[in-house]
Amino acid sequence: DTEVTQTPKHLVMGMTNKKSLKCEQHMGHRAMYWYKQKAKKPPELMFVYSYEKLSINESVPSRFSPECPNSSLLNLHLHALQPEDSALYLCASSPGQGISYEQYFGPGTRLTVT
Amino acid sequence: DQQVKQNSPSLSVQEGRISILNCDYTNSMFDYFLWYKKYPAEGPTFLISISSIKDKNEDGRFTVFLNKSAKHLSLHIVPSQPGDSAVYFCAASGIFNFNKFYFGSGTKLNVKP
After folding, report:
1. Given A42, A88, A106, which is nearest B105 (Cβ)?
2. Is B41 exposed, middle or buried (0-12, 13-18, 19+ CB in 10 A)?
3. Rounded Cα gap, residues A45 and B29, in angstroms
C-alpha cells in the first residue's frame, strides 16, 4: 500500500459547524502533515506530526485542531471556520527524519465554508 | 519572503519536444530539492528529487539539474507528452528544518499534441 487516503473528498460546512477531516497511510511513515492550498497557489504547511508528536504548528488559528491518534492516522478538527478557510486541505506523509525527505500527498479534501 | 521562486507561471511545448521548468532559491542552507506534479483536484505527486551533493539526477524522461552557485534548479522532460500537462511545483528543504518544505508558486505546463 503506497498511498495516502483522505476522507471526505468534499465537505461543505456552515460557520457554526464542527467537522473533521481524516487522513490515513499504511506505509509505515512516521511523519504526517496537513497543508492548505488555495487556487493557483502552492501548498501552505499547517502542522507536522513526527513520531505522533506535534513538531510544527505554523501559527494556525485555533479553529483548526490537529490530532494524531496513532502512527497511521491524522485528523484535522474544524470548528467555527470562516469563508476564507475554504480551500483544498492536503495530507502528506514521509518516512521520517534521517530516512528520506520525500513527502507523499493524499488527494485532498475540498472544503467549502458557507 | 518567498525563498523558492518559479518565475514562469506557464509554459507551452509541442509534444515530443523538451520541456524545461526552472526554479530559483535564496537560502543557501537548502540541501534537498524536489519536483512535484499536480493535476487539478488531485494532491501533488512526487516526481524526482536531488540532494545538494549532486548536480544531476535522472529518472526516465525526467532529469533535474542543480546549479548550487547560481541557486538554480531545472526540470527537463524529454520527450514531452500530452499527459505531462499539469502544474509543476519545485520544493526545497534542509537539515535545519527537515520536515518543512518551501514550495515555489508553480508552473503550469501545457503539452500540445
Report:
1. A42
2. exposed
3. 19
